[in-house]
Specification:
mainly alpha, two-stranded antiparallel ribbon, 2 strands
């Protein structure tokens, strides 16, 4: 048994098992698990989580509303362009498209519609070039077919030889080359 004696005035008091009494009055350091279990922590944690989610939701909602308004304005400009074209009025399409595209810049400040317009324009130029080459091939085939028909008519005796000579191209002349050494 452990004894602890305390003097008060002329009297002396003795306590048995003094270590148990002293430890009951000492406050222990709180652990993380004890802090998590408190109701204050739970309310603060839930407030932070749901508060940040609500703030993020409101920010996204405002951004979406702005984007919808910008696209609606762009569509009205494009509809006005279409109406002017249907009425055969003069339209500055490049200026109007630039105005419409400035309305719909995304958050990284790049205009994707302009890039799409440039790609479409390049595609149309390539299609026109292919169409021109195809037309050339068709014209050459037509000329060759007419020449073949004219030759067959001449061989059958139905066409003048003067007409045939004009329609048939001359054969290429042989070029002589000189050999050195």
């Amino acid at each position: 048994m452990l004894r602890n004696s305390v003097k008060l005035g002329s009297r002396t008091f003795q306590r048995f098992n003094a270590t148990a009494a002293e430890t009951s009055f000492k406050r222990t350091r709180p652990r993380v698990r004890d802090l998590v279990r408190t109701p204050v922590f739970k309310s603060i944690f839930l407030t932070l989580v749901f508060g940040s989610a609500v703030v993020d939701l409101m920010k996204n909602r405002k951004e979406f509303e702005g984007l919808v308004n910008a696209h609606e304005a762009k569509f009205t400009i494009l509809e006005e362009i279409i109406e002017k074209l249907k009425k055969d009025q003069s339209v500055d399409i490049t200026r109007d498209l630039k105005i419409a595209n400035t309305l719909t810049r995304n958050k990284y400040n790049t205009v994707t519609d302009i890039e799409l317009d440039e790609q479409l324009e390049n595609f149309l130029k390539m299609a026109e070039a292919e169409l021109e080459t195809d037309l050339e091939v068709v014209k050459n085939a037509e000329v060759a077919l007419k020449q073949e028909i004219d030759r067959k008519k001449v061989s059958a005796g139905k066409l003048d030889e003067s007409v045939v000579e004009e329609s048939v191209p001359e054969a290429p002349k042989k070029v002589e080359t000189k050999k050195f050494l």
